[in-house]
Amino acid sequence: MTTALLLMDFQNGIAGRYAEGGSDVIVNAQRALLAARAAGIPVVFVRVAFREGFPEAAVRNKAFGAIAQSPTAPYMGEDAEATQIVAELAPLPGEPVVVKRRYGAFASDLDVVLRGLDATDLVLAGVSTSGVLLSTVRHAADHDFGLTVLADACADQDPEVHRVLLEKVFPRQADVITVDAWAAGLGADAAARG
C-alpha cells in the first residue's frame, strides 16, 4: 500500500487568485508538501494547460470550449506563466508534474503515474474544491483508491459550495481532515514502524 500526495491546480493563474484574496490555501498546501517529503511520500503535481491551438477544447464543452474562443486563451498554453506551479510549491527534480486537459486530474496520464508509484491511497489538495477536487474525488473513488482530502489545503471561490462539499459530499468517499491532523498521523505511523 503506497500513499501519494496530489497537489492540484496550484498554478499561477488559478491559485494566485486565492493568495491575493487572503486565503491560506497555498501556505497549508506547502505544509502538506513538506510533511509528505519528510515522510518519503511521493508527491504528484497536477496542472491544467492546453497545446498550441487548444485542440483539446471542444467548442461544445461549456467550460473549456470558451477558452479556445477567447482572445485571452494563450494564457492557458502549456508554456504560459499562468499554467506553471506556484513558486511556493515548486516541484523538486524527479517529482512528476502531470498536465491535465479538463477539471479532473485523471484527464491526463495520472493513472499511469500512479500505477508506476504503486499508489493505492491518495491525499488530495487543490483549487478549486468544486472543480479539480470534486472531479478527482469522484473518479478516484470509482476506481477504489483510498482517499483523504486535506480540508484546509483546498479552496473555492464560493465558500458555501466549499463547505457543502467538505462537510456533506466528500465524507461519503474520503476522509476529510486538516493538514495538521494528517501530518500528525504521518509522525505516528513513523513511530509505529520505528
UniProtKB/TrEMBL annotation:
The keyword Hydrolase applies. One of its GO terms (molecular function) is hydrolase activity. It comes from Microbacterium azadirachtae. This is Isochorismatase family protein YecD. The gene is yecD. Gene3D superfamilies: Isochorismatase-like. SUPFAM superfamilies: Isochorismatase-like hydrolases. CDD domains: cysteine_hydrolases. Coiled coil: none annotated. PANTHER family: ISOCHORISMATASE HYDROLASE (PTHR43540:SF1), PEROXYUREIDOACRYLATE/UREIDOACRYLATE AMIDOHYDROLASE-RELATED (PTHR43540). The lineage of its organism: Bacteria, Bacillati, Actinomycetota, Actinomycetes, Micrococcales. The keyword Hydrolase applies. InterPro entries: Isochorismatase-like_dom, Isochorismatase-like_hydrls, Isochorismatase-like_sf. Its EC number is 3.-.-.-. Residues 3-180 form the Isochorismatase-like domain.
